[in-house]
Amino acid sequence: MSILRQAMKHVLAGLLPPRLLLVRGSQSAAGQPLCVSLTFDDGPHPEHTPRLLDALAEAGAQATFFVIGEKARRYPHLLRRIVQEGHELGNHTLSHAEPSQTTAEAFLREVRRTRRLLQDLVGCDTRLVRPPKGELTPAKCVGLWRMGQTIVLWNVDPRDYAMRLRMEIDRWTGQYRPAAGDIVLLHDMYPFAEFAVRELARAEPLQAVRWVSVSHWLGRPSDHTPDVEREVPRCQGVPT
Ligand SMILES: [Zn+2]
């Protein structure tokens, strides 16, 4: 994401309520634990996602997985495991098509199909969308908001997708100083996300951090209480 687009997204996030566009969570109040969200895109992956889930369980962390519909269809058992272990599912479109070559109509169709697919596979609804590469147009935004979706971006990007060696992610975790409300972008289609979680859990300065799913920041009462009016539960972690 270019520096200009980074700046734009922060300006927009300052103008719009988090239920429409979430780039980072809120600051912790004095005396409150420092909360950070880990998010994992582009899975599920048959090798890396189970290992990542093991690492999250050992760390006692909750996270949010923005899954690609076509991969979710291939590995439904991994989706079930994500939900059963208290994590949250988000929608990362059906095929992860290149955003610059995808019309708003095609993009929204992929989001709708993935939402239905996730309902069919794990029996719950999703209201979080992360567009591929974080790229959007006004028409795509409006279409998502009409569907009641929250657009979730990020404010911390270790660039694990560009890494080749374990030492690169170790270097990042060694220098990362979390700030309350951080939303960290990682990918479970690569091995580095698991290493990042293990190192973050081990690092002494980070042991006071509470790792929360993205819905923690939305403050929608319906996200934190059972929704008796809906026929299907939402795919999200245990309320935090
Ligand atoms: Zn992606």
Essential attributes:
TIM Barrel, 8 strands, 9 helices, 240 residues, 3-stranded parallel sheet, binds zinc ion, 39% helix, 5-stranded parallel sheet, alpha/beta
Structure description:
By secondary structure, the protein is α/β, with parallel strands linked by helices. It has one domain: TIM Barrel (Alpha-Beta Barrel), CATH 3.20.20.370. It has nine helices and eight strands. It has helices at 3-15, 48-59, 69-74, 76-84, 104-122, 138-146, 166-175, 192-202, 221-224, and strands at residues 21-22, 35-41, 63-67, 88-91, 128-129, 150-152, 183-187, 210-211. The strands form two sheets. Strands 2, 3, 4, 7 and 8 form a five-stranded parallel sheet that branches. The protein has a three-stranded parallel sheet with strand order 1-6-5. Helix 2 (48-59) links the parallel strand 2 (35-41) and strand 3 (63-67). Helix 7 packs parallel to helix 8. The longest helix is centred in the middle third of the chain and has 19 residues, at 104-122. The model is unreliable at 221-233 (pLDDT under 50). The structure holds zinc ion (ZN). The site of zinc ion has 5 residues, from loops. Residues 41-42, 92, 96, 132 line the site of zinc ion.
